[in-house]
From TrEMBL:
<dbReference type="InterPro" id="IPR023631">
    <property type="entry name" value="Amidase_dom"/>
</dbReference>
<feature type="active site" description="Charge relay system">
    <location>
        <position position="127"/>
    </location>
</feature>
<comment type="similarity">
    <text>Belongs to the amidase family. GatA subfamily.</text>
</comment>
<keyword id="KW-0547">Nucleotide-binding</keyword>
<dbReference type="InterPro" id="IPR020556">
    <property type="entry name" value="Amidase_CS"/>
</dbReference>
<keyword id="KW-0067">ATP-binding</keyword>
<dbReference type="InterPro" id="IPR036928">
    <property type="entry name" value="AS_sf"/>
</dbReference>
<comment type="subunit">
    <text>Heterotrimer of A, B and C subunits.</text>
</comment>
<feature type="active site" description="Charge relay system">
    <location>
        <position position="52"/>
    </location>
</feature>
<dbReference type="Pfam" id="PF01425">
    <property type="entry name" value="Amidase"/>
</dbReference>
<dbReference type="InterPro" id="IPR004412">
    <property type="entry name" value="GatA"/>
</dbReference>
<feature type="active site" description="Acyl-ester intermediate">
    <location>
        <position position="151"/>
    </location>
</feature>
<keyword id="KW-0436">Ligase</keyword>
<protein>
    <recommendedName>
        <fullName>Glutamyl-tRNA(Gln) amidotransferase subunit A</fullName>
        <ecNumber>6.3.5.7</ecNumber>
    </recommendedName>
</protein>
<keyword id="KW-0648">Protein biosynthesis</keyword>
<feature type="domain" description="Amidase">
    <location>
        <begin position="1"/>
        <end position="442"/>
    </location>
</feature>
<dbReference type="InterPro" id="IPR000120">
    <property type="entry name" value="Amidase"/>
</dbReference>
Amino acid sequence: AHLDRIRETEDDFGSFITVTDDLALTTAKDVDDRRARGEDLHALAGVPIALKDLVVTEGVRTTAASKILENWVPPYESTVHLKVKAAGLPVLGKTNLDEFAMGSTTEHSAFGTTRNPWNLDHVPGGSSGGAAAALAGFQAPLSVGTDTGGSVRQPAAFTGTVGVKPTYGSISRYGIIAMASSLDQVGPMGRSVADAAALHGLLAGHDPLDSTSLPDPVADFVSIAKNGSLKGKKLGVIKQLIGDGYEAGVTAAFTAALDVAAAAGAEIVEVDCPAISYALDAYYLIMPSEVSSNLARYDGMRYGLRVEPETGPVTAETVMSATRAAGFGAEVKRRIILGTYALSAGYYDAYYGSAQKIRTLVQRDFAKAFASADVLVSPTAPTTALRFGAESASDPMALYLGDVATLPANLAGIPGLSLPAGLSDGLPVGFQILAPAREDARMYAVAGPLE
Ligand code: GLN
């Protein structure tokens, strides 16, 4: 049924880069056989899923939405896909994204445009825009995204779905194509809190193949979401993430959600996180610095695209240069240049070093705020889904500003969840819940009853 739905709607939504019919049907058949034999199956066995095309899938083309990996078929498996396969979830395909996850609209893809199922004139958000549109368009009931500065939570907000950025290190990054390694985290996405919680439970857990993987046991997020209560819970509204710069319709929907929480017994308090005012600046130095280093591996020699120069000698350097010029899109090049500059001798202390200090201040602000609130809350994004054209990819600075509410969680390594909080002018608004690191369960205890 989901494959049929994809066939019927894909011309409109453009959620997928690759649809894997055969893989999905083979897995579904296998699960049926195992069920018929009376085998003990995972609760999600047989539930179809879509994977952002940044998740490495052995034997299935994985592109990162870049020309440089256009025909790359990975020879190894990511831990995420391994877990999905072992639990018997049929993989419907690989979803569209901004190239190497750099962007907020999914327009920076070398594989076409994804549209917001709520209104095809609007972007689905990004970078996990395909994963979010697949959910909102009922092409898939579950999907996997990645979140480096908001790429799961913001598209979830723009498409009226639920997106989770777990604590840094809680889901393995082994086989997730790297953008900025100290910020990247895999994110479960669904149409309800319980669905996202179930997928989170499947994907989380220690992985010796990821040196930043946490050893923590995985909580039962589904029952925590179902049995949670708002009574007596302190919700801390982050002063720096409301008011100026937020659309009136977004603020209205956010405030209405706070009223619902208060009516259910929650206590609403205000918290002050002054360093958040500098978080965006720090992110847009640290992230491109790590990008410039991570993307050095696309050299035209080891794998992916290889382009030889049209004239002159063919050397390692000229092949590298011709390959990267042809293979990377404009946004990726912009960030590599920014990052290389920030890391260069003479500027390192002024830019990268200062940004790391701000990162520490953001962490301290959060720690202080959590002393007076169980969870922190904010709108997920300052606007609803942007309209294609004038409002979107044309102005990189304006788009970077849209990440203001999501990227502090990545800088601090703490978990964040976005759930729908009604509509503004017919487009969904997201409500963000943040919890202390390794306390992901707390988000579900609030999100469950609030939903
Ligand atoms: N929009 C942010 C950026 O462009 C976040 C990207 C992400 O989380 N992958 O960097």
